[in-house]
């Protein structure tokens, strides 16, 4: 891989994760091209970044922390270009994709990215369940495809799960790790397997916790209290599910069920019912818990 400085980051998908990824890179001094299919999605992303930066500033003031020079909302936002034209990502030196966990949506995006991006550009797949090798197989640069499973909220999580696909080169993995270090994060490299490490364990935990509520063993608050009080977790499994989004959780569990064919990944009926009802967690105001 040529020794090319990375100055501009293309971020595909302006949902919760994409917005935070764009924000973190912009705060670290990178220029960002944030792409989504509608102006409405981009406007929501802009408001999300503004809100996050405001909260960070308030939190820093309350703790007596020095405000970093890039924390100014106007300065950070000026580094983010909001666009609905995927061709604009041709200016990027590195791409992070954050599209919904649906292969029918991701595949055409990668085919187009492969066409418009410069040949040396690495594509980082921000996914919890889509195989990295599968993504590489629809591009002409499979050695430059790497998984980067960011955790929510991106700005507060110091670690990223980095996934090596079948064709991913050592240079690509190192580029990913070096870039993460520039934004203050550590990468842990794992092999390409459905769910990788984090979600293969987490989704089983969430699904089993949902079954406990479904079977009236405990309610959602009791389940989460036990995990926080007994194990010292900052959030219980069902609070975590609500934060991620129950629709995303369901897609991940279904992906694991399809990949392994193992009944232990069978999605809980209550989880499916909540998703069908449009109760997706924090982003909709209600999931396993109710939010104001």
TrEMBL record:
Gene3D superfamilies linked: N-(1-d-carboxylethyl)-l-norvaline Dehydrogenase, domain 2, NAD(P)-binding Rossmann-like Domain
Domain of life: Bacteria
Keyword Nucleotide-binding: no
Sites annotated Important for catalytic activity: 149
Region forming the signal peptide: none
Gene Ontology MF: a single term: NAD+ binding
List of residues binding NAD(+): 13-18, 36, 101, 106, 128, 152, 283
Gene Ontology terms: biological process: fatty acid metabolic process
Protein family (similarity comment): Belongs to the 3-hydroxyacyl-CoA dehydrogenase family.
Name of protein: 3-hydroxybutyryl-CoA dehydrogenase
Gene name in the database record: paaH_1
């Amino acid at each position: 891989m040529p020794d090319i400085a990375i100055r501009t980051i293309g971020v595909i998908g302006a949902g919760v994760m994409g917005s935070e990824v764009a924000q973190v890179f912009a705060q670290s001094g990178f220029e960002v091209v944030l792409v989504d299919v509608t102006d409405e999605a981009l406007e929501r992303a802009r408001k999300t970044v503004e809100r996050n930066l405001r909260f960070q500033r308030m939190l820093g003031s309350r703790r007596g922390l020095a405000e970093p020079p890039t924390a100014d909302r106007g300065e950070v936002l000026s580094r983010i270009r909001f666009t609905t034209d995927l061709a604009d990502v041709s200016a990027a030196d590195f791409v992070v994709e954050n599209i919904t966990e649906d292969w029918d949506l991701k595949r055409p995006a990668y085919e187009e990215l492969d066409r418009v991006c410069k040949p040396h550009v690495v594509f980082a797949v921000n996914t919890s369940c889509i195989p990295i090798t599968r993504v590489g197989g629809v591009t002409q640069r499979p050695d430059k495809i790497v998984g980067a499973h960011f955790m929510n909220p991106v700005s507060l999580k110091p670690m990223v799960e980095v996934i090596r696909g079948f064709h991913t080169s050592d240079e690509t993995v190192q580029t990913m790790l070096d870039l993460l270090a520039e934004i203050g994060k550590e990468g842990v490299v794992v092999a390409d397997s459905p769910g990788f490490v984090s979600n293969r364990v987490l989704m089983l935990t969430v699904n089993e916790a949902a079954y406990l509520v479904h079977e009236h063993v405990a309610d959602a608050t009791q389940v989460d209290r036990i995990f926080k009080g007994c194990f010292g977790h900052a959030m219980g499994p069902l609070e975590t599910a609500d934060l991620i989004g129950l629709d995303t959780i369901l897609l991940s569990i279904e992906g694991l069920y399809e990949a392994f064919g193992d009944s232990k990944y069978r999605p809980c009926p209550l989880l499916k019912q909540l998703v069908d009802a449009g109760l997706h967690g924090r982003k909709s105001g209600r999931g396993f818990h109710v939010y104001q």
